[in-house]
Amino acid sequence: MSRHAWVSLRWLPLAAMLVLLAACVEHDPVALGTLEWDRISVPAPAAETIVALQVREGQRVRAGAALLQLEPTRTAAQLQALQAQAQQAGEALQELRNGPRSEDIAQAQATLGASRAQAADASAYYARLQPLGRQRLVAAADVDRARAAAGNAQGAVRAAEQALLALQHGTRVEQVAQGEAALQAAQAQAAAQAVTLRKLDLLAPRDGLVDALPYKLGDQPPVGAPLVVMLVGERPYARVYLPQALRLQVRVGQAAHIQLQGRDGTLSGRVRSIRSDPGFTPYYALSGGDAARLSWLAEIELSADNDPARMANLPAGMPLQVRF
């Protein structure tokens, strides 16, 4: 046997092992990612100063537990102003429903009587001036002024008659409807402000872990700023990046095995979602030729069959590998 043939036979077992390893890798794909918890944030309902902190980062809280408190003085004053506006709108509506007072009707009747007397006087004066004007004993301008005064007086009588009729007929249905709408709007604004006032005492919306308190005592965060960030849920999930070669092999509902870096054993789970739009593989998920390929973000939900005590203490952000 030649030396060249002997060397070839010597490396034959190693070559076979490499082939088997490549086959195992091909049939046992791996996706890289991190362990995550569902995150929720409690936003600031108003731009007020933080006056009390009842929790600390890393503390577990139950739903409804007090988290922090914002200064309520200004919001309470705004609520009182809106409640006063709602009361004013209610009184105005009641006035519309009651209609005009008897004193207002009597005043309109008196105004009508005075207008009729003035109209009668103006008409009589005009009647006396007409023959004198035909005889040219008075100037034509005086006759014209008397005629205009009589016409104005008759117009004032008709206006007074219509004003009296309006009072006698009462408030229109449309006016009452407008008053009801104004009252409802004022009450809704007051109710919304009351909700904002209650929200100044921030409560935990769910059971969970206080992950972050971005603002400290004495800060005045803007409206909508996250005051408390919480990790919630019964168990964490794996967020991994599927390379292009692995995307066709993985589907929603498929079983998966999660290996946490630095921990023995695996956790079972199932794929719950896969993003439809690909992105570039992040640096911590690069593996060989996958560095230049697109990847699809997927979430693997851990099964309830795993040890609950073990899953409850798993920290977010832990690197992991997922095999399908």
TrEMBL record:
Keywords: Coiled coil, Signal
Signal peptide region: 1-22
Gene3D superfamilies, alphabetized: 2.40.50.100
PROSITE patterns attached to this UniProt entry: PROKAR_LIPOPROTEIN
Intracellular or extracellular location(s): Cell envelope
Protein's name in the database: HlyD family secretion protein
The keyword Signal appears for this protein: yes
InterPro entries in the cross-refs: HH_YbhG-like, UPF0194_transport
Keyword Signal: yes
Domain of life where this protein originates: Bacteria
Coiled-coil zones: none
Pfam families named among the record's database cross-references: HH_YBHG
Originating species: Stenotrophomonas nematodicola
Occurrences of domain YbhG-like alpha-helical hairpin (ranges): 78-193
